[in-house]
């Protein structure tokens, strides 16, 4: 009988252990369902609501809001959530981008449902209509919220619209926008240290009629932009000018108007943007060099106006370098500009150490461009682990004289209010926008050579292009001396097909040396040597 008693005891223990584990699992599941919740924001009652999208998150109604070119959701989440979106009429197809997020919708009648496993920024497109997407800004639960009584904090509460005009940030100051707060105005900082704009609220330019750059940081050190959402800028959205040590995290831009660049990193260094989302008409991210730190005699109003930028000549700083710029884990989309650009204005000796890593381009005019219209040597640029869903042209690397160049003939120069269009015979044979370039007559090439630069050591690695671009890429130097050299294309695939030779890419080549194409990328170290974020 003893063996039987032993067997019964073992069976009893197994059953007991199973029940214990099952109880723990059910308890954890219940706690998870309680803890994973949506955090709704209280928006102003007068803020325009969407009449297209009826949204529920975890079966809780959440209001979508209307913009000129689409609708958006902005909310927080503490774990996986399910969204249910109901339309006025039944959709046939719903695509949620970027595709790499792996979020797919199930359609039943007028309603589609999908799950978000974590906070992310998405664009939901219905039946191929790009004129009215639903942008989904799902934020993490915000922490480190400053005290309203802190004398260095300006706190904007949820549910209100604030017409602030112009805010000038001073050393150690923070603007905090609660989710649902709407701030209308422009924000400036000059020679400021350790400043921040934080919170999930909105900086709104939709009511502004005058074109001007929106958030300007001139000669600043240690700037933090975190979780903010900038709506409908008119002019450059974020303008870093002669600044350093900049950190952007989960910063979102929705722009539709002229010159609404997402971020212009102008004569600045040590910049890291991570987890951001840029939807613009013009360039999403642009690296430029116009006004070096310390330049005097130029009105600030002209330095921040896209119509007068570059109007004045500035002193050259021999050997000066702009760079150490890192863009990671971000989503970019635009109508006809460049999603990621170095140029046009490059009045510095060197631009070096620019990295664009683990990002998605969902729509774009040109995916990646270097438009070197000045003297700079562009070197050590890395495009690594990029997904490109749709662009008109994949790459445009060009050296030459642009309408933005210091030495552009005055009748055609961009900053000339009476400028003329470049004559047809002086436009390039190949360019993304032929109206932006001036090509001298053959006998005059030498007259402009002293101010021309170089493009060196550019690596494209692990790039996947899902849809073939509509136009060929461009690699175009100025002449045999001022040319493009040292381009490495490794592991590029277009519609799943590996690019094994430059002829497979579809490209216009002019004054180019040393382009190497391999189907597989070379092994690389895992260490990331990007810039260090500023301490807060």
pLDDT averaged residue by residue: 91
What shape does the CA trace take? globular
CATH topology of the largest domain: Pectate Lyase C-like
Structural class by sheet pairing and helices: mainly beta
Residue share in β-strands: over 45%
Tally of separate helices = 3
Physical arrangement of strands within the biggest beta sheet: 15-17-20-23-26-29-31-30-27-24-21-18
The first-level CATH class name of the largest domain? Mainly Beta
Q: For the CA atoms, what is the radius of gyration?
A: 26 Å
**Quick one: how many beta strands?**
42
- Helix % is under 10%
List the domain count as a whole number.
3
The largest sheet is: 12 strands, parallel, barrel
Low-confidence runs (pLDDT<50, min 5 residues)?
1-34, 527-536
Give the termini separation.
72 Å
CATH architecture of the largest domain: 3 Solenoid
Question: How does this model look, in words?
Answer:
- It contains three helices and 42 strands.
- By secondary structure, it is mainly β.
- Strands 15-17-20-23-26-29-31-30-27-24-21-18 form a twelve-stranded parallel β-barrel.
- It starts with a helix and ends in an 18-residue tail after the last strand.
- It is globular, with a radius of gyration of 26 Å.
List the helices and strands and how they pair.
Blueprint: H1 2-35, E1 38-39, E2 54-57, E3 60-62, E4 65-67, E5 70-77, E6 81-86, E7 94-97, E8 106-108, E9 111-116, E10 120-126, E11 129-140, E12 153-156, E13 161-169, E14 174-177, E15 182-190, E16 193-198, E17 202-204, E18 215-218, E19 221-226, E20 229-231, E21 238-241, E22 244-249, E23 252-254, E24 263-266, E25 269-274, E26 277-280, E27 285-289, H2 300-303, E28 321-328, E29 331-334, E30 338-346, E31 350-372, E32 377-388, E33 391-399, E34 401-402, E35 437-438, E36 454-465, E37 473-476, E38 484-490, E39 493-494, E40 497-498, H3 502-505, E41 507-510, E42 512-518
Parallel strand pairs: 5-11, 12-14, 13-15, 14-16, 15-17, 15-18, 16-19, 17-20, 18-21, 19-22, 20-23, 21-24, 22-25, 23-26, 24-27, 25-28, 26-29, 27-30, 28-31, 29-31, 30-31, 31-32, 31-33, 32-36, 33-37, 36-38, 36-39, 37-41, 38-42
Antiparallel strand pairs: 1-5, 2-3, 2-6, 4-5, 6-9, 7-10, 8-9, 10-11, 34-35, 39-40
């Amino acid at each position: 009988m003893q063996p039987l008693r032993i067997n019964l005891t073992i069976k009893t223990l197994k059953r007991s252990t199973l029940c214990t584990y099952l109880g723990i699992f059910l308890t954890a599941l219940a706690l998870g369902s309680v803890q994973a919740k949506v955090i709704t924001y209280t928006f102003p009652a007068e803020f325009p609501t969407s009449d297209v999208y009826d949204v529920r998150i975890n079966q809780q109604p959440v209001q979508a809001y209307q913009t000129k070119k689409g609708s958006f959701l902005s909310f927080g989440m503490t774990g996986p959530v399910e969204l249910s979106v109901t339309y006025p009429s039944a959709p046939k197809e719903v695509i949620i981008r970027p595709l790499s997020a792996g979020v797919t919708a199930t359609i039943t009648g007028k309603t589609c449902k999908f799950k978000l496993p974590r906070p992310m920024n998405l664009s939901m497109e219905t039946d191929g209509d790009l004129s009215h997407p639903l942008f989904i800004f799902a934020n993490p639960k915000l922490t480190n919220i400053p005290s309203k009584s802190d004398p260095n904090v300006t706190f904007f509460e949820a549910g209100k619209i604030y017409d602030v005009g112009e805010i000038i940030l001073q050393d150690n100051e923070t603007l905090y926008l609660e989710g649902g707060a709407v701030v209308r105005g422009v924000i400036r900082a000059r020679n400021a240290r350790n400043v921040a704009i934080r919170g999930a609220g909105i900086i709104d330019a939709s009511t502004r009629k005058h074109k001007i750059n929106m958030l300007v940081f001139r000669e600043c050190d240690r700037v933090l932009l975190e979780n903010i959402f900038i709506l409908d800028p008119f002019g450059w959205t974020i303008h870093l000018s002669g600044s350093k040590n900049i950190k952007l995290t989960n910063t979102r831009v929705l722009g539709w108007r002229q010159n609404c660049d997402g971020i212009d990193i102008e004569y600045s260094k040590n910049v890291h943007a991570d987890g951001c989302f840029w939807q613009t008409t013009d360039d999403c991210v642009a690296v430029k060099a116009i006004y070096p730190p310390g330049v005097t005699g130029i009105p600030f109003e002209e330095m921040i106006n896209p119509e007068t930028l570059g109007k004045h000549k500035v002193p050259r700083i021999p050997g000066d370098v702009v760079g150490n710029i890192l863009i990671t884990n971000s989503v970019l989309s635009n109508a006809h500009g460049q999603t990621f650009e170095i140029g046009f204005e490059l009045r510095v000796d060197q631009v070096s150490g620019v990295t664009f890593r683990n990002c998605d381009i969902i729509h774009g005019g040109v995916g990646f461009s270097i438009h070197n219209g000045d003297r700079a040597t562009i070197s050590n640029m890395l495009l690594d682990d990029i997904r490109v869903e749709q662009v008109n042209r994949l790459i445009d690397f060009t050296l030459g004289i642009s309408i933005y160049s210091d030495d552009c003939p005055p009748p055609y120069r961009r900053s000339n209010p009476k400028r003329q269009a470049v004559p047809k015979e002086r436009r390039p044979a190949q360019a993304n926008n032929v109206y932006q370039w001036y090509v001298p007559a053959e006998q005059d090439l030498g007259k402009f050579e002293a101010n021309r630069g170089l493009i060196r050591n550019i690596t494209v690695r692990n790039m996947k292009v899902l849809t073939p671009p509509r136009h060929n890429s461009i690699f175009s130097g100025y002449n045999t001396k001022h040319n493009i050299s040292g381009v490495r294309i490794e592991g590029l695939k277009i519609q799943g097909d590996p690019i094994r030779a430059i002829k497979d890419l579809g490209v216009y080549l002019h004054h180019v040396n040393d382009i190497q194409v391999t189907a597989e990328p070379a092994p690389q170290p895992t260490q990331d040597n990007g810039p260090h974020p500023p301490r807060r």
